[in-house]
Amino acid sequence: MGRQIYRMERDRARFKDVVRGKIRGDLRRYLSSSELVGKQGDKVVSIPIPSIELPRFRFGSNEGGVGQGDGEAGEPVDGKANGEGHGPGAGEQDGQHILEAEVELSELAEMLGEELELPRIEPKGKDELLVEGGRWSGIRSQGPQSLRHFRRTYRRALARTIASGAFDPLDPVVTPIRDDERFRARRPEPRPESSAVVFHMMDVSGSMGREQKDIVRIQAFWIDTWLRSQYRSLEVVYIVHDATAKVVDKDTFFHLRESGGTKISSAYELCLDQIRNQYRSEDYNIYPFHYSDGDNWSARDTDRCVAMVRDEMLPRVNQFCYGQVKSAYGSGQFKKDLDVAFGGDERLVTSSVSDRGGIPDAIKAFLGQGR
User: Fold this and answer.
1) CATH of the structural domain 194-367, one choice from 3.40.50.300, 3.40.50.410, 3.40.50.2000, 3.40.630.30
2) Which of 196, 30, 13 is nearest to 111 (CA)?
3) At 365, is the pLDDT very low, low, confident or very high (cuts 50, 70, 90)?
4) Domain boundaries, the chain
5) pLDDT tens-digit profile of 120-139?
6) Which residues contact 306 (CB under 8 A, 6 or more apart)?
7) CA–CA separation, 81 vs 60, rounded Å?
8) Mean pLDDT lowest for which of 148-152, 188-192, 198-202?
């Protein structure tokens, strides 16, 4: 029985390697697909994998045998001419089945890093927060009986008995009293913990359609997956804007559709307010990502955005990223303005995505500097 279980576990591990190899081979296709995003759990993601053949037995009739008798090669067995078959509508042929494999997000992040050749992130500034950790290696004189340290208690009682002259080697009875008792204690051992916050900001004006939001959703999924693999703690803040901005939950972020104008500075002001009051750069590594089709309501507001990014954001954040998604109504001017204003500054990265095929290059542009 033990040998059989070992074989099953070995075959299971082998098949798991086949599945992982299939995912790695098709990873670029998944980078541009929304299949993974809707199947995400806390620590794993369910990935649909087509075209993996699973060997199995097929049962059927065993009629017939070795061919004998008259006949020529190629002649139909039943004497009928070849032609289209006629029979019942249902058949017994295999259909194409899709296997769903669960993969841990940490493993998916590793695949992403290998596929896009992403460097590991080196946190900036004071990114290490002290959190209470430690082991039960301390000793104290008070505590619950469930944590009483028998050896330490007995040792104290023995030392006290010998010191008082009451110890008899012929009758070595040692009776602990209350003052002898010692208890296990958790000794604080603060440890560094790298923390980060991601701001996903998106234009939800009428010009940003469903396809544009799907592209943003896919990019955000892979960005978060990679950053979670680099930091012990990652918080995500979602901000939507048209002429005004507000913080929303994840579901609202990807499904809200508004109409009206676009005032990008409203999102940047709200992001800065969050950074100043809740996510100080002394405690967090900060990653603002902004997604838009490139339209802003005025050149004056664009100048204000540039000033905020240059004077307020870049000194506080690891990197500022702007992703422009092509739409039928967007001019794409905002990316041009940012490229002119910040050309050569590695702290600001822009990308332009015309369709889903451009998603991998955009992700590599955002994460490829290891900031």
Assistant:
1) 3.40.50.410
2) 30
3) very high
4) 2-54+98-116, 133-188, 194-367
5) 887 764 444 444 555 667 88
6) 337, 338, 341, 342
7) 25
8) 188-192
